[in-house]
Amino acid sequence: MRNDSRLKHVQYYERRQSRVARKLGRSKFDTLLITQLADIRYLCGFTGSSAVLVLTRDDAAFFTDGRYSEQAHTEVVGAANVIIEGNPLRRALQWSQESKARCLGLDFAHISVSLFQQVQQQFGGRVKLEDCSGMVQSFRMIKDEQEITRIRGAVKLGAELFSTALESIRPGVPESRVAAEMEYEARRRGGEGMSFETIVAGGTRSALPHGRASHARLPRRGFVVLDFGVILTGYCSDMTRTVHLGKTDARERRMYDAVLRAQLAAIGKVRPGVGVSVVDAAARETLDRAGFGQFFTHSTGHGMGLEVHEPPRIAGKQRQKLQPGMVITVEPGVYIPGEGGVRIEDMVLVTDSGCEVLTPTTKKLITI
Amino acid sequence: MRNDSRLKHVQYYERRQSRVARKLGRSKFDTLLITQLADIRYLCGFTGSSAVLVLTRDDAAFFTDGRYSEQAHTEVVGAANVIIEGNPLRRALQWSQESKARCLGLDFAHISVSLFQQVQQQFGGRVKLEDCSGMVQSFRMIKDEQEITRIRGAVKLGAELFSTALESIRPGVPESRVAAEMEYEARRRGGEGMSFETIVAGGTRSALPHGRASHARLPRRGFVVLDFGVILTGYCSDMTRTVHLGKTDARERRMYDAVLRAQLAAIGKVRPGVGVSVVDAAARETLDRAGFGQFFTHSTGHGMGLEVHEPPRIAGKQRQKLQPGMVITVEPGVYIPGEGGVRIEDMVLVTDSGCEVLTPTTKKLITI
After folding, report:
1. Residues A206-232: what's their mean pLDDT?
2. How far apart are CA A195 and CA A230, in angstroms?
3. Taking phi first (over 0 means left), then psi (-120 to 50 degrees means alpha), and beta for anything else, what does residue A324 get?
4. What gap in Å lies between CA A34 and CA B244, rounded to an integer?
5. Is A2-140 a CATH 3.40.710.10 domain?
6. At the topology level of CATH, where does B145-357 sit?
7. What is the pLDDT confidence band of residue B2, given thresholds at 50, 70 and 90?
8. Is A153 helix (H, G, I), strand (E, B) or coil?
9. Could you give the CA distance from residue B303 to residue B177 in angstroms, rounded to a whole number?
10. Mean pLDDT of B357-365
11. Cα distance between residue A102 and residue A30, in whole Å
């Protein structure tokens, strides 16, 4: 990295840490024990698989084990103390004790009961342990410029794989072969991996909302649902397109049109200040009116970033309001058991005045 | 599946469940709430990503959500009750209450504090909640015939990828390109995915014990560590070979020989009744004597199966004794920062009288 881009890189992490520190200053916590890897990566840039980050109102310490010594020194930003010895959790607790923690925030949604008991035991009641789940995630929900740039990169790479898929889809080809071609292309183009198990589900299997690519062969005719994403510079993409093998019949065209209209209706609602349930309802009502409502069996979307599922959930009972900088998926679907299914999914950035659909790919029904 | 093989398939799961039920009969628990997906797959064959399995001494109930309706009906074996509606955890707790649970076992190592609090709240103190972590895992540690067959399949497929790697390794090729070729081949040959992020680490990067394939290009000379595995029929493989680009020097040959001798010494100890620490010590002492002991910075191995890391850990402080049916890795390594590293890893099955090295690949140093 050149010096100026390195500086900018460091500033993003420092800004994220200082935002959390300010929030800490206004909370009951004096110390946060951060154990979820995506939170750690967000706050200090470390990409390894074993670490604990401790934040206080004016200090930060990072802990990992011997395997990650070199990597920690290269990657970790903004933690004055980088400690690489022994068990990271035990050392992090010691450090918190020495820095006089009194009320320690732990992410109850991501820490196991066993680990919690270990922490309790080490502190022996001298430190209050309270739930801070959602705290770092609430910052992660609003993406900064660096994150949006990275997400755009992941979305672009992901979208390129749709062309790869189209080249290999034909009757008789195993679903897993289509996935293989897509994943190979992702890697060749620099992807770090897929953001979830690639879904290629043809014929009646398209009616399985989670029909990951199987050894089943694509049929002569019917829908093929393709749901896939890549990880690039740590950030995930996620998109779904449904294509059709052979000629469509009238009912299939009605299904596809209904899903597409539902997706567009939902996207049409995305802007700052709107509740996520309004977005969900727009998709659901469109499908209801088209007579397919009962076959839309999941929520309309989810936030994305370092993880493929992040807050907010775009669902009926959620109260979250959309804010600029959120990146969400909008992905209604219709699944008729024994028959077939259609899902269409884009990634959408909430902007200051509305939204921007990040996924560049056509949604016109492609028949092969 | 033909009828007789279907029957055999069902029997494996029923046998696993009845073993756990018998253990339940001798324990303080009357009910187990199983939330870890690998445990659920082991006991009833379900491969989806959202489920809860409840076992009592004489009954079993399986819970998932609407997305997995078809899949649950096809896959789940041995649970008389398959319930697909609402939130699986909430429904599972209701069912436990209705079946008069008094002491409920929960896997504290795999359940979050939030989830635990939710369970506490729903039961309001009327049911005792205790830790059953390790209980299903202790059965999973000893593989049955079906599992060993599946593991052999995964190991074979994994080993085939080494040839693919050899074809693409040459100076100037990005590490990620080598990984891409291997992963593509895995998919083409029916693999469901890789069992962990493929490691291809060349030159000084070979000194990173977790140097997953990066965009760095392979150097003109130096070691290349390849650590990779596939998932096939749910089971994981894991192997490491280290090759050399260009001519080796005397020190490099000493390093490689020392690691190979350490690995063989460790394998030489594997038989029923031997403590895992003895296996670890054999590798460590060999490297100590060769003067490389300080550069062996991780444990010697781990169990494998539905997950790539399972009990037992093959490490100095562990007390577990080896038993027939265990499948472990033996993978000592030497990592000299700024210089290079070597690791050699096989999968090993503990047999009645000793062990069988499952990985079929040569360990002679290959120079390219």
Report:
1. 93
2. 5
3. beta
4. 40
5. no
6. Creatine Amidinohydrolase (3.90.230)
7. low
8. helix
9. 29
10. 97
11. 7
Three-point CA angle B52, B93, A299, nearest 5°: 60
Percentage of chain A modeled with pLDDT above 90: 83
Reduced to 3 states (helix: H, G, I; strand: E, B; else coil), residue A151 is helix
Complex ipTM over 0.95: no
User: For B257-293, what is each residue's pLDDT tens digit?
Assistant: 999 999 999 999 999 999 999 999 999 999 999 999 9
Size of interface A-B (CB pairs under 8 A): 95
* pLDDT score of A84: 82
- Give the residues across from B55 on adjacent strands: B32, B60
A260-311 residue pLDDT tens: 999 999 999 999 999 999 999 999 999 999 999 999 989 999 999 999 999 9
B144-193 pLDDT tens trace: 999 999 999 999 999 999 999 999 999 999 999 999 999 999 999 999 99
Query: Residue B103's beta-bridge partner residues?
Result: B128
Q: Where, residue-wise, is CATH 3.90.230.10 in chain A?
A: 145-357
Place of tokens 């907010």: A312
Residue A354 CA to residue B344 CA, distance in Å, equals 55
The 3-state DSSP class for residue A367 equals strand
CA distances from A346 to A160, A207, A310 (A): 14, 19, 16
Distance CA A123, CA A87 (A): 16
**Which residue from B139, B234, B241, B146 is spatially nearest to B199, judged by alpha carbons?**
B241
**CB of A143 within 8 A of CB of A155?**
no
Nearest to B180 among A116, A179, A187 (CB): A187
Task: List CB contacts (< 8 A) between B67 and chain A.
Answer: 209-210, 297-298
- Phi first, then psi: give them for residue A337, nearest 5 degrees: -55, 135
- pLDDT at res. A144: 97
DSSP secondary structure string, A104-142? EEE-TTTSBHHHHHHHHHHHTTSSEEEE-TTHHHHHHTS
Burial B136-145 (b: 16+ CB within 10 A, else e): bbebbbbbee
The alpha carbon torsion through B351, B13, B186, A361 (nearest 10 deg) reads: -160
Which residues lie across from B343 on neighbouring strands?
B333
The Cα B78–Cα A132 span in angstroms is: 40
With CA atoms as reference, the chain A residue closest to B129 would be A113
Within chain A, all domains assigned CATH 3.40.350.10 are found at 2-140
Chain A contact set for B108 (CB, 8 A)? 112-114, 117
Interface of B with A (CB under 8 A): 48-49, 66-71, 106, 108-114, 116-117, 131, 133, 176-177, 179-180, 183-184, 187-188, 190, 192-193, 197, 207-210, 215, 297-298, 337
Whether the CB-CB separation of B266 and B300 falls below 8 Å is answered with yes
Please tell me the distance from the alpha carbon of residue B228 to that of residue B169, in angstroms, as a whole number.
15
In the numeric block, the tokens 């062996």 are attached to B296
- Whether residue B187 and residue A197 make contact (CB cut-off 8 A), yes or no, is no
